[in-house]
């Protein structure tokens, strides 16, 4: 293998200038690219009047990034349209919010084709290509049409829904068929892998020819479960760093004599924020003795402001947080602190460490790394408690969390009450088990497992041909 080429919708590598706001996934992919002398290709985040295919190539802290601009129509139809108005809600079981528009599908196909045409001259014969997420499902098909015969792997970061759900998508068969142009497709959990297999066996008349291989559409595809983790080593250093310690001190001082519940999520309907607020409201309504003793800090940076659904949820959360504070607040206490801004990862590490409870309750989530970062940020001598949605992929690993149905305000309220009153010995026992998993199944293991599987499958194929 000469190089690893990573392809994602956006390219966002660390700059090497101490900016810790870059996400854990970007950190992991950057580390993989440095290890394998690789290239990161994707959209620059900029739009231009007309697509030119002109590449911009830069070096970031040892990572070569190749980016291309999209035209405004591409952005609206491919990104705001098919990716975020069609696939995102559908994959998160929100068929009621899923928009089907022929122009969205056309834009999705067009951008994947343009990505393939722009990437093709950069590919050397021995390169491994690793494509990420739902934005780029047809990319392997487009690369194959251009004569690329390299090993190409695909990893889906979000859930893969039940076959009855994916079957509601116009053109669902063509979308799944495009996945069979990859050599390896990875999912976050066994549940998502099973749902994909069920579609292939039920809707596509495919067959399972080995425990990790499916045959359909005239192609054989390797599949696997690759749960993503955080960069545990890097995050441990961050927790001990001066910025995290300062933020922890600030939060401890601002919540003195009170227990803090922390939620950190991108502002998105899949994160269960409204249900979370209602659960906290139920806790206060049912437990007058906890008022003034507890507060909830919800950090929810605004995203996808060009999509109407996101504007609507922001308005509803503004109203809901105002209602709770209006009902329960006192002159020197607000039960809800609701903040719509981004924070650096080292700042978040300090905020997590000051919290008594981490409240992570998505309605559906591929994995959810906030849950793992909360665990990694805790004081081993006095750890907080993780309350986690059973519908997050992380729930399959973090079994010592308090698992809840996020659709039930009563379950959320009961779990919060239990977490806030949990004794030190139980908190330590639960945290140790959680921390062991976070450390043992980190992002380096995820990265290496996927790349090794993709490369090993290639080696086995060559050996079989030689034999």
State the low-pLDDT regions, or none: 16-20
- Give me the CATH fold name of the largest domain: Rossmann fold
Largest sheet: 10 strands, mixed
Q: Total strand count, please?
A: 16
Give the rounded overall mean pLDDT: 93
Query: How large is the radius of gyration?
Result: 23 Å
The rough form would be described as: globular
User: Termini, distance in Å?
Assistant: 21 Å
Helix content: 40-55%
Question: Biggest sheet: strands side by side, in what order?
Answer: 3-4-2-1-5-6-7-10-9-8
What is the CATH architecture annotation of the largest domain?
3-Layer(aba) Sandwich
Give the number of domains: 2
**Contiguous helical run count:** 16
User: Which structural class do the helices and strands define?
Assistant: alpha/beta
- How would you name the CATH homologous superfamily of the largest domain? Glycogen Phosphorylase B
Q: Which CATH class of the largest domain?
A: Alpha Beta
Strand fraction equals 15-25%
Keywords:
467 residues, alpha/beta, Rossmann fold, ten-stranded mixed β-sheet, globular
């Amino acid at each position: 293998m000469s190089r690893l080429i990573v392809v994602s919708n956006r390219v966002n590598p660390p700059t090497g200038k101490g900016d810790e706001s870059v996400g854990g996934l970007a950190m992991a992919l950057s580390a993989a690219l440095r290890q394998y002398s690789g290239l990161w290709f994707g959209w620059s985040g900029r739009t231009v009047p007309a697509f030119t295919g002109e590449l911009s190539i830069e070096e970031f802290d040892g990572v070569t990034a190749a980016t291309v601009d999209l035209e405004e129509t591409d952005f609206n139809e491919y990104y705001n349209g098919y990716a975020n108005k069609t696939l995102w809600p559908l994959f998160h079981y929100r068929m009621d919010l899923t928009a089907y528009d022929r122009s969205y599908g056309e834009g999705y196909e067009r951008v994947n084709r343009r990505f393939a045409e722009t990437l093709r001259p950069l590919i050397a014969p021995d390169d491994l290509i690793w494509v990420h997420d739902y934005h780029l499902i047809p990319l392997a098909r487009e690369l194959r049409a251009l004569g690329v015969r390299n090993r190409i792997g695909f990893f889906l970061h979000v859930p893969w829904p039940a076959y009855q759900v994916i079957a509601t998508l116009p053109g669902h068969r063509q979308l799944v068929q495009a996945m069979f142009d990859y050599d390896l497709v990875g999912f976050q959990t066994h549940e998502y892998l099973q749902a994909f297999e069920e579609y292939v066996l039920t809707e596509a008349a495919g067959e399972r020819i080995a425990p990790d291989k499916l045959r359909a559409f005239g192609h054989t595809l390797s599949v696997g479960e690759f749960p993503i983790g955080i960069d545990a080593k890097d995050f441990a250093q961050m927790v001990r760093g001066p910025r995290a310690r300062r933020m922890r001190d600030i939060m401890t001082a601002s919540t003195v004599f009170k227990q803090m519940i922390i939620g950190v999520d991108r502002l998105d309907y899949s994160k269960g924020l409204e249900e979370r607020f209602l659960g906290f409201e139920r806790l206060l309504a049912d437990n007058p003795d906890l008022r003034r003793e507890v507060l909830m800090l919800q950090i929810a940076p605004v995203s996808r402001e060009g999509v109407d659904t996101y504007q609507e949820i922001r308005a509803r959360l503004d109203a809901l947080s105002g209602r709770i504070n209006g009902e329960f607040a006192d002159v020197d206490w607000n039960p809800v602190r609701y903040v719509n801004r981004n924070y650096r990862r080292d700042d978040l590490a300090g905020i997590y460490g000051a919290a008594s409870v981490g409240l992570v309750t998505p309605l559906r989530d591929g994995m959810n790394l906030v849950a793992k970062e909360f665990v990694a940020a805790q004081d081993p001598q006095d750890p907080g408690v993780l309350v986690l949605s059973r519908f997050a992929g992380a729930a399959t690993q973090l079994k010592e969390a308090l698992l809840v149905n996020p659709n039930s305000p009563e379950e959320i309220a009961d779990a919060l009450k239990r977490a806030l009153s949990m004794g030190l010995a139980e908190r330590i026992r639960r945290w140790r088990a959680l921390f062991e998993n976070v450390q043992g199944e980190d992002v380096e293991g995820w990265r290496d497992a996927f790349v090794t599987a993709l490369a090993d499958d290639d080696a086995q194929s060559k050996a079989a041909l030689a034999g």
